[in-house]
């Protein structure tokens, strides 16, 4: 089942197309086939009937707004992001910037407990909300990865998911907050009281709408990990890049999660799945908040392709590598650089990606 995006078209380079929507309550074989098709064509899909309880999502969103509504000096107690913690504007280590505030969270149980003290005035409430959310979205990610393996006819259907089930998984949660363009001089705390009148979504920030203003909140990039499970409030801004170089706006959907393939999964599927390039635009008159779970392997896990996905007509495209190796390469490059090329096995009849 697919639906068309309804986001406004911002320029000639942006168009609305049908994006895949996966219903996890549909027949399992059909779901696995559809997932494979979505990952081969787009590297992206939305998932509905995902089984993550609404109250778990709401509690985590409330904690996010609670944090980002604080004065800057209080938020900075949770920073700098090295590699976890609070950051603003600067993204990564190589000069990339965006119109974004963010909080990077290590999600192993001990780190959740320890980190909550600098993040929240009620650490146990924050850590409980975070633990519940992480457990739910990790379960969703594992289910999706197992379905993908089934759809690819891989004998060991846990070949992808075991990495993020591992106790040493390097998975993380990133919370992003984008203030509206015309509200940059206003702290989120100025309207914080409106957000928590039994409603997890932010209010309008009462400014004139400028539909052609396309300020980038988070620049073009692919995610390095295995799989990303993204939840955002009911405000547009996410765009994915399709193979002809055009940008496709992703319509917000309060009932769905957005899921995208990461670099590691592209390597493990021998290039069949696409690690989609995407970006986030700043909305002119609404605040946008997103929560991204990045499912990642343990640092010293070996990333290689299952033998079923290698054939004479499709030789192995990437050399085996560890997640630690890949992270080192990632930290050495700019946000938009192509990291997988560094691990590509080149043959005479293949061109560079």
TrEMBL record:
* Enzyme Commission number(s): 1.14.11.13
In this chain the Fe2OG dioxygenase domain maps to 168-297
The answer to whether UniProt assigns keyword Nucleotide-binding to this entry is no
Tell me a GO biological process for this protein.
gibberellin metabolic process
Reply yes or no: does the keyword Iron apply: yes
What does the record give under GO molecular function?
Answer: gibberellin 2-beta-dioxygenase activity; metal ion binding
* Catalyzed reaction equations: gibberellin A1 + 2-oxoglutarate + O2 = gibberellin A8 + succinate + CO2
Pfam families registered for this protein in UniProt: 2OG-FeII_Oxy, DIOX_N
The regions listed as transmembrane in this protein's record are none
Which Gene3D superfamilies does this UniProt record tie to the protein? B-lactam Antibiotic, Isopenicillin N Synthase, Chain (2.60.120.330)
Query: Mind telling me which SUPFAM superfamilies this protein's record contains?
Result: Clavaminate synthase-like
UniProt keyword list? Dioxygenase, Iron, Metal-binding, Oxidoreductase
Q: Which InterPro entries match?
A: DIOX_N, IPNS-like_FE2OG_OXY, IPNS-like_sf, Iron_ascorbate_oxido_reductase, Oxoglu/Fe-dep_dioxygenase_dom
What PANTHER family would the database entry show? 2-OXOGLUTARATE (2OG) AND FE(II)-DEPENDENT OXYGENASE SUPERFAMILY PROTEIN-RELATED
Instruction: Say which family it is in.
Output: Belongs to the iron/ascorbate-dependent oxidoreductase family. GA2OX subfamily.
Protein name, as recorded: gibberellin 2beta-dioxygenase
State the organism named in the record. Answer: Ilex paraguariensis (yerba mate)
């Amino acid at each position: 089942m697919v639906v068309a995006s309804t986001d406004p078209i911002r320029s000639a380079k942006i168009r609305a197309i049908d994006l895949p929507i996966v219903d996890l309550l549909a027949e399992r074989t059909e779901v696995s086939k559809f997932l494979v098709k979505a990952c081969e064509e787009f590297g992206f899909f939305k998932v509905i009937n995902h089984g993550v309880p609404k109250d778990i999502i709401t509690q985590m969103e409330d904690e996010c707004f609670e944090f980002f509504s604080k004065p800057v000096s209080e938020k900075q107690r949770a920073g700098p992001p090295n590699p976890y913690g609070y950051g603003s504007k600067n993204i990564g280590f190589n000069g990339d910037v965006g119109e974004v505030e963010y909080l990077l969270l290590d999600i192993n149980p001990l780190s959740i407990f320890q980190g909550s003290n600098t993040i929240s005035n009620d650490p146990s409430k924050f850590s409980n909300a975070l633990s519940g959310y992480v457990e739910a979205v990790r379960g969703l990610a594992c289910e999706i990865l197992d379905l993908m393996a089934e759809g690819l006819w891989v004998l060991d259907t846990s070949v992808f998911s075991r990495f993020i089930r591992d106790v040493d998984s390097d998975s993380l949660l990133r919370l992003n907050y984008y203030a509206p363009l015309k509200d940059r001089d206003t702290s989120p705390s100025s309207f914080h009281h409106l957000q928590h009148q039994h409603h997890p979504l932010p209010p309008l920030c009462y400014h004139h709408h400028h539909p052609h203003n396309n300020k980038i909140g988070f620049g073009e990039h692919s995610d390095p990990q295995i799989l990303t499970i993204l939840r955002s409030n009911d405000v547009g801004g996410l765009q994915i890049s399709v193979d002809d170089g055009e940008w496709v706006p992703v319509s917000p959907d309060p009932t769905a999660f957005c899921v995208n393939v990461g670099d590691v999964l592209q390597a493990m599927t021998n290039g069949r799945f696409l690690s989609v390039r995407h970006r986030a635009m700043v909305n002119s008159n609404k605040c946008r908040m997103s929560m991204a779970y990045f499912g990642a392997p343990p640092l010293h896990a070996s990333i290689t392709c299952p033998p079923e996905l290698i054939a004479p007509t499709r030789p192995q495209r990437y050399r085996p590598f560890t997640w630690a190796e890949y992270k080192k390469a990632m930290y050495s490059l700019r946000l938009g650089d192509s990291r997988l090329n560094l691990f590509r096995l080149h043959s005479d009849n293949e061109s560079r990606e």
